[in-house]
Amino acid sequence: MESSSENQQTPELLLKLAQQLSPTKDIVQTTLQVEGKQAYMLYLKSAVDEIVLHKTVVRPFYETSSIEVYASYLNSAPNKKELADEQSILIGLTRGNVLIAVPQQYFLLEIRNVGFDEVQQITLEPTIHGAQLGLSESLEVSMNVIRQRYHQPSLVFDTMELKDQSNRAIALVYDKVLVNPRALQLIRKRLENLDFPLILSTGDLQLYLNGSKKSLFPSCLLTERPDRLVYNISSGKIIIMVDGSPHAVIAPVVFFDFMISMEDMYHGYWISLLTLFLRYSGLFACVVLPALYVGVSSYTPDVFRTELALTVAASRIGVPYPSYIEVFFMLIFIEFLTEASIRLPTPISATATTVGGLILGTAAVDAALTSNIMIIVVSLVAVSTFVIPINELGFAVRGLRFILLLYTTFFGLAGLAIGLLGIVLFLANKESFGTSYLKLGWKSRKKELGIGEK
Amino acid sequence: MNRFLYYFIILNMIVNMVVEVPKILIDFSHRGAITSIALALIIGVALNWILIKLFQPFPARSLPELLQLYTPGWLNKLILLYLSVNWFVAGLLSISTFTLLLKRFLTPEMSSYIIVSSFVFLVSYGILMKSKSLLNSMEIIMILNIPIVLFLIAKVYLDQTMDWDYVKVALTYVNNWPNYSAVTAAIYPMIGIVNIVIFNRYLISKVNMRLKHLLIIFLVGGLILFTTYFIPLGYIGFDVSENIQYPWILTSDSVRLKYGLIERFIFIFLLIFLSLSFLNITIHWHVAQKLLEAVYRTKKLVIKGKDFNPYLWILLFWGITFIVAGRMTEYQLFLLGKYFFNQQPLFAIVLIGSLLLIKRGAKKHE
Question: Can you tell me the distance from the alpha carbon of B116 to that of B327, in angstroms, rounded to the nearest whole number?
Fold first, then answer.
């Protein structure tokens, strides 16, 4: 048959690659043929945008006069990729590249079909003013989002590839003039040495980047707000984005970054000062209150003024166990409630919170299993946790207050005071890619405090 | 002057307002406390000036490094050992004091050992920290606490129950000669600067002292020493206050916050000073551990690239602290404090002498 003799001319590379890809069914290996001209294509149907393929590869083949013209047409295509070794071509094919062979020449064109390239609504950190749309799951679109908001020639997109099973593209974004070179070097090194079988999204990439996976406080900031990204790029930080994840990681960060909501930028001075104050007092309250309740009611009731001390004591009448058990129970209960309302679908979660919060809360007080004041404390703690703008810090704080509670349970009010200082020490000792996590940023600071190197 | 040097100086001043120093000063109220304070103020400021001047030519170097470079080995080990014992005892004194204070006023039913352990765990964390992080956290804790301290002091000054007549009575004893113990006790709050021996490594500039800075330290020190000595007299009374173990705590308990959530002043007072003392203890022991590390260090304890030498010292610190702070009575503690203050001139001589040796050695090297 004639076609079989044609097939024998199919370039070996194509056949070999096709063989390596089989037995997947979405592989397409075709021959374009018109009098005297021949070209061969290999691609994965599921990864390639076939309309674009037809428009830019197939149709020109029939419209060009000779195979040389067609080859030079392909050669000048803007989406042409460099040909490297077989393995990387294979990965390229899975990523939506099309391998085209004309006599003596191969071309690799990127004709990706990304079904999820829409810019997404911001859900994690909504603001009233400010951007309403975040990044996209497609890396190119996300990069476009940033590029369109930061018109500086010094903005650098540095793409590389994860070395795990998913082989995804990741992009480092930074302003090469402003960037902190030490942190950049460190992040590059960590990314190169990353040794994990599968990385699913930006969320877990940041955990692996941390160095130690077992840390309570996040050392990168996960965000989806383009305005936050641009703000951080302009202050010399590095953004890491992973293809297929609508979030970006900002590194290095300091503790105070987690307490900033982008809305602060859009309000007047006094308003944002007020909200900042609210936020910090919320942070303080949700860490300290449970421990304070134990310290005051079990160790030193005479700290509060007499009336208040009596109120607390009176509300605890009939509660059959010491205060620390009460607090532990109620805190865990409120954690259940929060966790349940996150995981459940919206219509059911409203029921869960009502039943859990209102009905159980009142019933628990009526049954003298907990005191009224405890319910107030716990609700206050739950609400003030939500004042923290970045979710990850909220989670860390939820863990932190248990530690402080434990310390106070053992050592009383003095334990609370020392424990708070311990938290400060701990945070100050933490590092995020070479910068101290907690420190005050005076202007003249760099001049005064440094490391004396010999 | 470098901001962190101010922090050291002021932290030490504030922390020592509360316990031993006022007790010793009030003990000598009939025997020259006022002249002692004046003398101590001058000596203290002079010591600050001398130490900063001596460290000025060696930016970003710590004392152990300098000793290693410019002095013979046996001598520097001896000096470092003596200095580190001083720093350790300074921290130990504070821990013992606060253990007794907490037991007396905040949690009387708790065992001393438990109170001690509430300190040592987190202090040990502070010892193991990077020095630079410790400086950062010191800054934050100071900035958070100083406004409250100012409020507390202002409140004590302005309260109705403060009787200035007693202060006037006390002032009539101005014509007595200074007493050695009173002078050394009053110098102690002034010399927070000594922590520079380790932290100088991280202070890369502005380690200098001009007349302006000298004046600031003189004024702040004078104000704090004045407050330390005279305010308790005003609350407790001139003649009776000698019999009181904790003059400042009683003073703070005399003040009432009429409209506050916490009515009794003493609790805020205790907790704030506890926080600052905790910080000071951490710094003291951090320095002590760094000095000890320069004295003795074994390669055997470097296991899998991690250095366990600091843990050795921490274990030693823990052992001594549990034995001493867990058992000490108030009187013993008072005596220990007094002896410790009394030997301070030796400390100053050793420290300044070693720096002079370094200076000479450095000149020879050139």
Answer: 11
Determine contact, residues A152/A175, Cβ cutoff 8 Å.
Answer: yes
Distant-in-sequence, close-in-space partners of B350: CB < 8 Å, separation ≥ 6? B79, B82, B83
Size of interface A-B (CB pairs under 8 A): 133
SS3 label, residue B204: coil
Q: Determine whether the interchain pair A412/B107 forms a contact, defined as Cβ–Cβ distance below 8 Å.
A: yes
Separation of first and last alpha carbons in chain A: 80
Q: What distance separates the 2 farthest-apart alpha carbons in chain B?
A: 67
How far apart are the CA of A382 and the nearest CA of chain B, in angstroms? 23
CA distance linking residue A369 with residue A364, whole number of Å: 5
Tell me how crowded residue B339 is: count the other CB atoms within 10 A of its CB.
11
Contact B132 A414 (CB under 8 A): no
Reported as a single tens digit per residue, the pLDDT across B25-83 is: 998 888 888 999 999 999 999 999 999 888 888 888 888 888 888 888 788 888 899 99
Q: Distance (Å, rounded) from C-alpha B116 to C-alpha B24?
A: 24
Assess whether pLDDT exceeds 90 at residue B86.
yes
| Interface contact B133-A436, CB threshold 8 A | yes
Residues A390-431 pLDDT 10s: 888 888 998 899 999 999 999 888 899 999 999 999 998 888
Among the partner-chain residues A299, A300, A448, the one whose CB lies closest to the CB of B203 is A448
- Phi/psi region, residue A131 (left: phi>0; alpha: psi -120 to 50; beta: rest), is beta
SS3 (DSSP) at B59: coil
**Torsion angles phi and psi, residue A101, rounded to 5:** -120, 125
What band does A244 get if pLDDT is binned at 50, 70 and 90? confident
C-alpha A433/C-alpha A315 separation (Å) is 49
pLDDT digits (tens, 9 = 90+) for B136-186: 899 899 999 999 999 999 999 998 888 899 999 989 988 888 989 999 999
Whether residue A418 and residue B61 make contact (CB cut-off 8 A), yes or no, is: no
Please count the CA atoms within 13 angstroms of the CA of A377 that sit on its side-chain side: 26
A34 φ/ψ angles, rounded to the nearest 5 degrees:
-145, 155
CA atoms of A449 and A444, how far apart (whole Å): 9
What are the distances in angstroms from CA B215 to CA B42, B48, B142?
11, 12, 21
Per-residue CA distances from B206 to A132, B6, B143, B200, B351 (Å): 48, 12, 20, 11, 21
Instruction: Give the predicted TM-score (pTM) of the model.
Output: 0.86
pLDDT reported for residue A443: 54
Q: Please report how many Cα atoms fall inside a 13 Å half-sphere around the Cα of residue B327, on the Cβ side.
A: 6
CA of B12: how far to CAs of B21, B83, B94, B260, in Å? Answer: 12, 17, 11, 29
Long-range pairs of A309-312 with CB within 8 A, sequence gap ≥ 24 = A311/A373, A312/A371, A312/A373
A413 vs B271: CB contact, 8 Å cut-off? yes
Q: Which residues 6+ apart lie within 8 Å of A289 measured at CB?
A: A377, A380, A381, A384
First to last CA, chain B: 28
Q: Which of B60, B121, B136 sits opposite A438 (nearest CB)?
A: B136
Distance of alpha carbon A100 from alpha carbon A86, whole angstroms: 14
Question: Å from A194 to nearest chain B CA?
Answer: 21
Residue length of chain B = 366
| Phi, psi (degrees; rounded to nearest 5) at B181 | -65, -40
- Other CB atoms within a 10 A radius of the CB of residue A307 amount to 9
A173 by DSSP, 3-state: which? strand
The minimal CB distance from A449 to the residues B4, B62, B125 is found for B4
- How far is B131 from B126, CA to CA, in rounded Å? 9
Q: What is the pLDDT of residue A403?
A: 92
Distance CA A88, CA B202 (A): 48
